[in-house]
Fold this sequence. Notes:
By secondary structure, the chain is of the alpha/beta class. It contains one helix and seven strands. It is globular, with a radius of gyration of 14 Å.
Amino acid sequence: MQVRLCHLPEGPRRRPYGLHRLLLTEATFSDCDLSDVVFTDCTLRHTEFGTGRYRNTDMRENDLSAIRGVANLAKVRIDRGQKSDLAEALVSELDITIGDV
């Protein structure tokens, strides 16, 4: 699944959109404005977040350890425990080897 150029309607009383319990395995978001969108309990295995806007995108309550495009997720919201998920995703994305070789 590839999502490109997605724009959510704006208005004077725009409320955050919610994506709840969606299977987004291997989905690609590219050139999207997902600002203020709430992802809740979604499967994000190998989901790629390309260039776009993610300001205040709420990624809490999701496993982020296998996402791609971590560097594009500036200004998202996560829980304290998800810092290690993002670190794991970044290490995988950059193909970093850890330990003695």
